Amino acid sequence: MRSVLGFRPTRRSNRTSSLEGYPKVEEDCANHPQNKQPAGAAVMELFHHAKDKRHSVEVRDSASPTRKRTSKDSPRLAPVQPATLEVGMESPPIVFYGPPGQSTGALLSGQLILTPHEPEISIKTLEMVLQAKVTTKRPVKHDCPECVTKTTELFRWKFLSEPTHFRRRKHHFPFSYLLPGHIPATSHGFMGVVDYLLSAEAITNFSEPVNVTRYLKVQRALMPGLDKNSTRIFPPTNLVASVILPSVVYPMGEFPVQLRLAGVVTKSNDGQVRWRIRRMNWRVDETSKMISEACKKHVAKVGGEGKGVLHEDTVDLGRDDIKRGWKTDFDTEGGLIEVEFNAGIRPGSSPLCDVESPSGYSVHHNLSVEIIVAQEHQLYKCHKNPVPTGSARVLRMQFKLVVTERAGLGISWDEEQPPMYEDVPDSPPGYAKMSDYEGEALPEEPLEGLH
């Protein structure tokens, strides 16, 4: 009652109030006639002030006093898979020997290894599929996966016919397949990509599927044969060029080129007109083509179903200029110029082997040879100073090159396999004629001496 009458208390309590530390209401101001409020209103003001201060308190991290603790700071643990899958290959490198129309294919064999991480797990299905994937780098619609990649299933293995329990150890599942020889080899070019992959999947009862993918490198090797002879004619002149090239060319190394130019001399009444080589150069080009087909959603952009857009790109793999080294013979009938040089693919140019895919992807190589010849007139009276006529020509030739991998021994799978069961007879061959022995008795030898 004394505090209500306005008297100041003369003694402070020793107890610590729950509102200690908050600003106190000055009783002098409360007793002022203009600021006088009821006692209940003053108490409610204190509680509201305490509530505002509690909301302004921030919980700070001890390591970073200025950083707030958020849910992103807590580490996220990846889900632990109950098992792992591995693909172990047992077959040699996959190489097709011979052209696509004659190759017998290559054997693919290995084991799919399942390793559980728990004492016992249950696998519902375990399958693996061999796929051929063709990816175009110039699709009709860039953000459409179906326009970018075309996937073809070659074979599928189903290792389990019913749900099976597996304990914690390695479980092996063998597989094998004969790859046909007409399919294209693996290629990673500027216009497209051809890949082969094994994709396995194990489905359990209580967790996400367990997957594994392994890419396969498929190569094609052509056996070297006889050299190729090519002839080019350059009318209206009498010049005829003959070129000898190897049947196959390898991505690394050089290959010889033999060139013979005939018909360089034409006789007249007062002398002869002849052609002389001034300069020549060669170049190896790689041409990649890709027909980009559209999916069913974007087929209207290419004009209808079954149509596509052809993209072509040419890359220079090597070149050189030849300014000397040829042999000239103007005394033979018609004249003759011979030259031999080495051409090749520049190291580090990442060449591709020849590929022809039914999906529209192809890679081919060409050798281009350019010869600059100048005409001159040689009089019979003066054999030392031929007179240039001012006429010159550029002879351009192009020859197809077959770039392939080295064949090595070139033994395909069907040539190194053991004999078939139907080729093995049931018993040793019989004797055509037998006769009784007539003569002295043969001495008997002890068996101990035969050791």
UniProtKB/TrEMBL annotation:
This is LDB19 N-terminal domain-containing protein. Pfam families: LDB19. Residues 127-302 form the LDB19 N-terminal domain. Residues 437-451 have a biased composition (Acidic residues). InterPro entries: Arrestin-like_C, Arrestin_domain-protein, LDB19_N. GO terms for molecular function: protein-macromolecule adaptor activity; ubiquitin protein ligase binding. GO terms for biological process: ubiquitin-dependent endocytosis. GO terms for cellular component: cytosol; plasma membrane. It comes from the Eukaryota. Transmembrane segments: none annotated. Residues 1-80, 414-451 are annotated as: Disordered.
